[in-house]
């Protein structure tokens, strides 16, 4: 994530590169898994 060319390509694609440790990434995933089920259910979405 320190390569300027890579950062530029990601930014052009609309992504925001964030460097973190594996534990920080795991915590991010846990927080996302806690939020999205309610969003999906609230929107009335289902998996076919």
Q: Can you characterise this structure?
A:
Helix content is 62%, strand content 0%. The chain has 2 helices and no strands. The model has no long low-confidence stretch (mean pLDDT 91).
Task: List key phrases describing it.
48 residues, mainly alpha, 2 helices
Characterize this entry briefly.
The chain has helices spanning 4-12, 22-42. It has 48 residues and is mainly alpha-helical. The protein is flat and about 40 Å long.
**Low-pLDDT regions:** none
Query: What is the structural class?
Result: mainly alpha
Task: Please summarize the sheet with the most strands.
Answer: none
Helix percent band: 55-70%
Q: Note the run of SSEs as H and E.
A: HH
Please tell me what the overall shape is: flat
Instruction: State which percent range the strand residues make up.
Output: under 5%
Beginning-to-end CA distance, first to last residue: 36 Å
What is the tally of beta strands? 0
Number of helices: 2
Rounded radius of gyration (Å): 15 Å
Q: Mean pLDDT score, rounded?
A: 91
SSE blueprint:
Layout: H1 4-12, H2 22-42
């Amino acid at each position: 994530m320190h390569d300027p060319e890579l950062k530029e390509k990601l930014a052009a694609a609309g992504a925001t590169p964030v460097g973190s440790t594996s534990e920080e990434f795991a915590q991010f995933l846990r927080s996302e898994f806690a939020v999205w089920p309610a969003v999906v259910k609230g929107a009335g979405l289902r998996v076919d």
